[in-house]
Specification:
mainly beta; six-stranded antiparallel β-barrel
Length: 132
């Protein structure tokens, strides 16, 4: 899977318990939309590696995740701090007039008076406002 065809779901924060579980933090608007995940991609050395999920328990944007076939602390050591990804097709549908930030990257910003201002290359999210 190519990273450009995916979105960042969140990341693995730390180990949890003794049986290969990990704590995760989801960086999405509606974490509850992802409480029934069957698999995710983990970014390991710039490669997306698929992992099947045995169980996931979410509490807000935090959760405990257990991968299939990883049953000890040592087996999840190299996953700590790594990003979690899903294919873009897994994004929930939006209402008309709404958009995901990755959808506007590459768009030209035009002002009625000044004309073309520039291309959107990144979106910064701040508590009070988002900046394109």
């Amino acid at each position: 899977m190519n990273i450009d065809a995916c979105f960042r779901l969140g990341y693995i924060v730390k180990k949890h318990g003794l049986k290969g579980e990990v704590s995760i933090l989801l960086d999405v608007d509606f974490p509850e939309d992802y409480d029934k995940l069957e698999s995710v991609f983990v970014d390991i050395n710039k490669q997306l590696v698929p992992f099947f999920i045995e169980r996931i328990q979410l509490n807000g944007n935090k959760g405990i995740l257990k991968f299939e076939d990883l049953d000890s602390l040592s087996e999840v050591d190299n996953l700590i701090g790594n990003d979690l990804y899903l294919p873009l097709e897994a994004l929930p549908e939006l209402d008309p007039g709404q958009f995901y930030y990755h959808d506007v990257i590459g768009y030209m910003v035009r002002d009625e008076n000044e004309g073309e201002i520039g291309m959107i290359s990144q979106v910064y999210e701040f508590p009070n406002q988002d900046l394109f």
